[in-house]
Model the fold of this input.
Amino acid sequence: MSSVLKFYSDTDLGAIEARPFKVFNERSLEKIPQLAKLTEAQRFEMKVVASVLPFRVNEYVINELIDWSDIPADPIFQLTFPQKGMLAPESYERMAELHRRGADKAQISALAKELRDGLNPHPAGQLEMNLPRVNGEVVEGLQHKYRETVLFFPSQGQTCHSYCTFCFRWAQFVGDKDLRIASNQKDQVLGYLREHPQVTDLLVTGGDPMVMKTKNLAQYLEPLMEDDSLAHVQTVRIGTKALTFWPYRFVTDNDADELLGLLTRLVKSGRHVAIMAHYNHWRELETPIAREAIRRLRETGVEIRSQGPLLAHINDDPAVWARLWKTQVQLGIIPYYMFVERDTGARHYFEVPLAKAANIYREAMKQVSGLGRTARGPSMSAGPGKVEIQGVAEIQGEKVFVLRFIQARNPDWVQRPFFAKYDEQATWLNHLKPAFGEEKFFFEDEYEAMQAGSG
Ligand SMILES: *Cc1c(COP(=O)(O)O)cnc(C)c1O
Ligand code: SF4
Done:
């Protein structure tokens, strides 16, 4: 347990060697040596689920993060490997039937597409409402939902070093072109930023932008340092799960040093640079290479902030979050968000009722010092904004959820407490009803008008 509290010494690091990136997908699932331990039936289930939901896992995750003596319960196994319960029973059965009778690829793809379409591939109106335009033309690969912050999805970063089974961006990985939000239109993106001086934050996301070669990432970030018309972009955030799935990216990969150099220069240019690290479990922080990657990143002057969803089968336990946050604080990572699993993909497998989520959050908070209490949540990234469940209260005899917007389409909605009827089963904002006999939440009329206006 004392290993939680230390960085590895140079001697330990002697054991770290560059390694080639080797990855398995649904076609090579059978070649993963550890799966030989499973029964034929278990392997079949995985194959069925992997023909609908994206599957990709690399050797580091398989060999060093998963505890194979504890499957299927192991949280990292649940995080990366398909499980039968991730599909609704009737969907599972239909796909299993095709595999049993050796259906051809075309039939499997057609059913896969039908089943995916039923899984709300673009939650919270991502496609319709958030596409920025320049001269009436949609700028591909950008989302601008909140005034200060533009999300950018570089086209070369639309994959990850492994895939999370609960991914809310899963639709981008399954090769359905209509569902992809991607871009290589660097000039358009920089043009959009130039025309929007209210934008202070650029959030580079994916997939995982850290799958990109440093030179590709640099073509987007260098101009910020060279071009005065982009001086208003003060903060650069990079969303990534590479610290978990491929920490070698920051240590031994060919262009790791070049990447750290780029980040150092960006920091020296006066930018706040934040690595928005996606973490779900403290186990992701325990290997020597993961620690070394964190140490090297922090040396560049970037901040590492952590965020991740609360998930059944992976981390629906206050002790897991308390240890995650404590370890992060110890390693110099700032806890930022606890998310509620979004209403897409395999959500039924992972979802945790809001009432339970609020309780897990509070029980975890109780166990950490103030420096670990910087994580806000549990927060739902819904159409109108990020809505946090602040807690459960009883007001004049009525049990209610106390809610607030952490972030909203209209900045004026932010930080106003509002109330919903307590509901033990509710798992998302659209299940909640206003408390105290009111008909609508305060923001609903305005939000509906925004939706109608965006056509
Ligand atoms: C969360 C999010 C952001 C960033 O919001 P912050 O509150 O600044 O962290 C920006 N855009 C979208 C679409 C988001 O979901
Ligand atoms: S790292 Fe992020 S984008 Fe990639 S699979 Fe996981 S949740 Fe999805």
